[in-house]
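Sanity check record (used in CI):
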Amino acid sequence: MAPSAPAIRLLLCDDHAVVRAGLRALLASTEGIEVVGEAGSGEEALAMATRLRPDVVLMDLQLGEGMDGVTATRRLVRGDPPAPRVLVLTMFDTDADITRAIEAGATGYLLKAERPEELFAAIRNAASGRTALSAPVADRVLARMRSPRPGLSERERDILRQLARGLGNREIARALFISEATVKTHLGRIYGKLGVETRAGAVAVATERRLLP
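Expected output for Transcriptional regulatory protein LiaR:
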């Protein structure tokens, strides 16, 4: 008989202990996947990945205070080889979250509503270097590719730079010699183009896409 393939070494990263316990119990029901550790923060995930050398890190995006899942993903995949594959498992499927995670280097993006069989298959795909996307996420990615958002105008970039400095609408209006109403209009267009709903989200996505100096 041919020797069986070694189990996929998996590191869980979620700030909720109950979620981690549930995932560990669920994964114990399938062969070929071994949970080698649990991290409750991005910082902890980085430290544990260095020590445990997992094949795949199952990463939540919202990790409470400290490093978020996108930053942890970027640092994991750009770390010393062999870098683990990162499979995002989250409740959020906004365009901004998906874009940031994929641009940070995530191999896949799953929603927590997935069936267990889909999760198992995604982990195996990620370990093999294959992309794994939830069906709703894949639909959103394809829709964006077919109808890409227009680029930012020079004025919108100016406003984005002021946002990154932490300025409010009135301060931005004074700095650029325009009215507050004009600032609000441009902000609405910026949010739409970047697929975000908040000032912080706009700055985060702009930083990921290197739209800021």
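The longest strand covers residues 33-39. If this sentence no longer matches the regenerated tokens, the check is flagged for review.
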